[in-house]
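Q: What would this complex look like in 3D?
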Amino acid sequence: MTNLVVRNSVRFLFLVLFQVLILNHINLGGYTNPYLYIYFILLLPFATPRWMLLILAFILGLSIDFFTNTLGLNAAATVLIAFCRPYVIRAISHEPEEELGIQPSLRIQGFKWFFFYSAILVLIHHVALFYLEIFRLTEFFQTLLRVVVSSVFTLALIFLSELLFYSRRKARR
Amino acid sequence: MRNLILFFRKNYFIFLFLLLEVVSLIFFFRTNNYQNAAMFDWTFAISGVINSTYRDITEYFSLKRTNLILSEENAILQARMPEALYLTDTVVFSRSDSLLQSEYRFINARVISNTTNRRNNFQMINKGALHGIEPHMGVIIGNKIVGQVVGVSRHFSWILSMLHKESKISAKFLKNNQLVSVEWPGGDFRTGIVKEIPKHLLVLPGDTIVTSGNSEVFPNGILIGTIEHLNEKRDENFNTATLTFLTDFNSLGYVEVVVDMFREEKEQLKASFKEL
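A: Here is my prediction, written as structure tokens for the whole assembly.
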């Protein structure tokens, strides 16, 4: 239990710093950039109380916002995916939540499950983030392109991190 | 009453979600009006320190470029020195100092955080209220446009970049002083759009667009960009044109904040006019 708390806190700090210091400066193709920080929300244990999901998402979003002077923007999008997460998990799993394991993982739930899980949440987050930032309909298709390209990059980074950091867990199971 | 409490307890997840969403959106739309950007002074302190440490490290990688830009600026300034001017006339104009009062003062600052990849971009600089910076001051690099100060804390300031959907700069053609406005349509940070070009105006690629000096933000004649091509609109009253920015927004090092010494006077005059 304490192990889980420590590991998630470290992941929180690492992802915020990584997002702010490195990913925010990446400028692919002129106007996209990946938002890996929501990986923290994706990886929270299944047993996390729902209110805690929302509160953590709110704090996470605000911490990113402080660095980009967009107070509330990332917070709104991140709270939205924290709200959707339980419903997405229920919709794509065949077995009850208690039998899914400790936390979402590519190795344990398999490629298909993890792909749909992360793709749906990343897409919701990016749609909310980009359209809220623009807040007008005149640039609809240009923004849609940004959403799609950025989602692909974010997903690629999520899968890369899964492959890099979570190879040990398979042996434990 | 008990049913009401039971109802809230049963659906607390949705209510908590709605509460946090509403709080976020209030934050977002309030700070978007730039009124209360400095309300959260302590967040400036944290993000300011982290941003400037980051900048301290990455600055070394762009030293060569920064030197180049500084030496170019030096050359421009040298050209303005009296020693660089050749007197072609025998008439000597003497001018007394009491006739001249400087209209603008410049505060130099270092950009410690900058983006160009969003629809709405900001820069953070390492000077703030302590150094005399106030909201609505213009920010330039060399003689080229950067943006406008929107939030000030003691040691840092946020600049609303030219690359922001709310940036609408009053500008003019250098060649004939015709007024237009410049905006950024998103996408590539090198190209902007010139709007409100009168139909009769002859626009050629390469025409220079500068600030008009009509607002209190920028002095007259700060360079914005050059015309790429004209987009004729048959069914509208004005033409638009694509513009290439002269500022390289992706490599801002040291910038200057413009302090208009007569701002108060100008604003007072405007206000008194409104009352009539």
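A: To summarize the key features: Chain A touches chain B at residues 20-21, 24-28, 30-33, 50-51, 54-55, 57-58, 61, 65-73, 75-76, 79-80, 82-83, 130, 132-134, 136, 139, 142-143 (CB under 8 Å). Residues 69 and 91 of chain A are 36 Å apart (CA to CA).
Q: Very helpful, thank you.
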